[in-house]
What does this fold into?
Amino acid sequence: MAEVRLEAVSKIYPGGVRAVDAIDLSIADGSFVVLVGPSGCGKSTTLRMIAGLEEISSGTISIGGRTVNDVPARDRDIAMVFQSYALYPHLSVRQNLEFPLLRRRRHASLLRSLVSPAYAKARRAEIAAMAARVEAAAKTLEIETLLARKPKELSGGQRQRVALGRALVRDPAVFLLDEPLSNLDARLRLEMRAELRMLHRRTGGTMVHVTHDQEEAMTLGDRLVVMKDGVIRQEGTPIEIYEQPADAFVAGFIGTPAMNLIDGEVRLGDDSASFVAVGGSSGTAAADTFSIALPDRLAQIARRAAGTARTVPATLGVRPDAVKPTTAPTTGASLAIASATLEAVERYGDRVDLVLTAGAARIVSRCEGTGTELRERATAAIAIDLSKAHLFARDAAGRRLS
Ligand code: ADP
Ligand code: MG
It folds into this structure.
């Protein structure tokens, strides 16, 4: 098994698309790392460069301490699994699993075994070893009973398992997985997620998994690498990224429902601070304004960003589970109260998502329970717990203020 390192790696496709822009990434031996980001952010390109399927435009890639820039894909000791299973339709499952083992020296060894009995005998040992590896992989993936079948006689999930098996038999230093679950239906995807984690534990291999699905990324990875527009926006454990997002993009991308990101400004008083949302009508009625007092922690952060100014443009980030409708008067050091209109109620049975408008701000709230008492178009007071809220710079980079 092996560590994978990327140093200032870029990819510019013919035609000038800068798909990957000088990324540095270090993937520890035996870890499970997930590259996640919206479609087109450069995930597949990054993976394909590690695999050697795509030339790099600049930078250095090393696997297990060896620079592989000029090493062809077949000599990199990696195995890659794609979204499309790419099984040979005319071969049985067993033959599909044997194929990656045969491919390398089939022709040469066939010729030699014809002329040399000693070589033919050695080949028998090799064939027995191959059969053992196929059996072991089939057992790991629980497809032993399917070995005689053709791919068309398998379900989507079983096919994907065979595709994983083809990577597994080679016992590579690094597994690269490019959206391997995207073609599966929702239920099977959940099942396969758990199986991938178990597979990782059993093999102890280095795994690099690519997905656009932030929930899949959160649940699978020991570490996440969040990408956008060919650059890494943040790298860390799922919880670090969830709790301390580096910028507004990461904050909005990781977590369901997405974090509320409210554009506005912090107004600093002598010993108080408030956050006021921008936009909305120009009227002065209280209902048009979303204005809340900020707790000391956020006020101090805003003061540091303000320097000598009295206002700071900022985006307030609050997770939906920190917003609750409230009937009783509530107070608390980090609680802010606002008046809102309940626009839509989405009931899931065990929880409800509420879409609220408060002045110019559109806010999603997630609550436990059935929510049967809630009425759309009603006015409600909402309590916003700001103890875990963030402020982001209101510019293109949107860095978290701290
Ligand atoms: P992702 O896997 O994150 O969806 P990709 O790595 O496939 O993203 O693509 C990154 C960017 O590079 C996109 O803008 C895409 O259109 C472009 N791209 C991908 N492959 C090629 C190619 N072979 N030629 C030109 N541009 C490409
Ligand atoms: Mg892709």
